[in-house]
Specification:
The structure holds two protein chains of two kinds. By secondary structure, chain A is an all-alpha fold. Chain A contains 30 helices and no strands. Chain A is elongated. The chains are: A mainly alpha, B mainly alpha. Chain B: Belongs to the sigma-70 factor family. ECF subfamily.
Amino acid sequence: MIDPREHDGRSSSADPLLHERLVAYLDRELPLAEAEAIEAEIAANEAARIKLEGLDRVWRALDALPVEKTDADFTRTTLALAAGTGITNTSAGASRFGSLKRGLLPLIWPAIAGFGALAVVWLAAWVPQQRTLKALPLALAADALQQFESLDYLETLAQITPELALAAKDPVIAAEADDWLTVNQMTRSERLAWLTTLDSSRRDAIAKRVASYQTDSRNAERIAERHAELVASEDAERLAGYAAAYYAYAESLSAAERAELRELSPEQRARRVAKKLRRWRLERTLTLAPGERAALASHLRDVVRSETFTQARENAFARRGPRTAPPELRRVIDARLDSAPAAALSRVGQATLRATPVRAPARDDRRNRGDMLWLMIGNAFRESWPAVEEEIVTGLPERLRVALEEASLTGRERTEAVLAILGQAASEDTPDDQREQFESLSNEQLAEYLALPSNTMMDRLTDDWGAQMGVTTEDTVERGFFERGPQERGPRGPAEPAGREGFRRFGPPQPPPSRELSPEGRPRRGRPEQPEPPQR
Amino acid sequence: MARYTASDPDVRLMLRVGEDDPAAFEELVRRHQDRLIAVLTYQVGRRELAEELAQEVFLRVYRARKRYAPGAKFSTWLYHIATNIALNARRRMARKKEVRMPIISPDETGAHALDPVAASGAMPTRVADRQELRSAVQAAIATLGERQRMAVMLAKFEHLGYAEIGEVLGMTAQGVKSLLARARENLRDALEPYLDHGIAPTDQTLSLSLAEDRSIELILPDEADHD
């Protein structure tokens, strides 16, 4: 009787040598003599034969394993990546292309070679892998998608304020959102080609986003779900615009502000963000392009030479009188307005917004004395400033003028917006006198300055600048410019005595005005009452 | 060298690649990409990752083109590189996440657990259709250890001899002989119940197999497929 275990061939497992030999026989790895020996054994041993058949049957069953056809995208991308590693050395390649099997390849290879030439520079810095290319749409949007917990949040915010939808129309934001959706539709080779069309800074930014996305897997699953929901939505374009706009807003916040926002419930957050979006969008809209900055700087030179401004300036200096605006200081201010009009107008404009009276700085506070002077001059410009502001606005790029008109701003908000624009132009404005001061420094002097503690260096620079300009801030103190307390509005009377004489008459610096309390113990609203000037 | 050059068309192609012939490289990629990706998919468990690794393999081949000297079949060299890359990938994955899944899905092209009805004992005489057989084979392959699985793939689909598989895996031919013998025995244990009676490899079978082979590293679904 035959043992069933022998019949199914499993008993031979107890004979590992026989098993190995049977397998090797099937694999044609036995020498001829051993193969003949095993054939003899199979003929004589039913169990061995059954086992051999079983092994063979299982081996043939492996033919059922699928071998999926790799898509052409993989081949193209692989070849392009290889091109990026140096396969572009195809100067003699044209003759070889003719021998290729398919007629299309002569067209494809030069394209790949050209693409490789483009890719090689970039790939030297960042070689995107298949996984990177595949995850690219998600990586691009990941930072934005993790700013909120659901697309419903964006919908809620958009219902509260139209500013989100308006921000989504910003060309830069719209382009960002468009990238997400477009790249999502691309094949991997198209994504690779797309990446090579970007400038290096954009590529670097994307590389960082991808790296950040790949290393931060904490929220990856939820972000992936959000992304899938976004791209599958019928309103994908609109939602992507919202998401990109919200991301741009969040990016404008400090880390602390973002953290604070995250602590709020979605409803609270949406309400708070809705309040801020209008101003943020306005500031964003008012951002000058480099070309616009140069054009505005040119316009501002015309503004300071215009009749409106010349008259306003005369009025301001006349109001200050020769004691607070002596000729040497006026010369400095004129020079600043002429050589760096954006910066000078910006300081004047800021001074007009100042609600509290100008206080005198400490006697040894050289730098703040200079600021105080500007504030006093600016105070004198208050009445003239609206006309000056109009002059400035007429020279702004049209989109900024339109934005200012459409924003429904109060007078103060509008001035703040104009000053924000001036501030951008001022960032590249260096007054001639300051430039000359620095240009006149030798390397040794520069080294000497740099070796000083920062405060000491600034004091030295201020003193040296004054000496160079023929003006010292010590003089202004001695003349009592800052000791008069709060400035009055409107024209002054006859010219006041200067120098120590004035100081004696007006007395020592006034203490800060104490806030008067109401009977309920609360500070009174509005400007504090002006102290009576001492009688002459 | 002359032997391999003459007998292995891949070696001839690779020598042309060494002369910066892009058409030869394309031909090599096309000839091997399907099988390489399939083998790597069985090694790392996800086709997406396997494609990425395959790309890396081809790029390494390309970068080494100037140093290439035929001393074996081209596929031996190719899979030697692939094995190292797959091993590194699995180590990275293991470092990234310690959680292990109980069952491998050996590829993403249809490697799912058997349909419960089809796999039940209710249809012992039924002739398995192609999909069922495929699933059963995939499940059986998943029970193999990493080296066993690679050896099986190379022997079955790349038709490499024991010595060549030994070169790929860093083993002697005798070691490969034993390795393949154990692998085929494991496959038979896993597949024969299905082939004979329509009983799929069960979770229990898989668990036992895994417990027996401590060297196996399971595939981690740690990176979602986002497309």
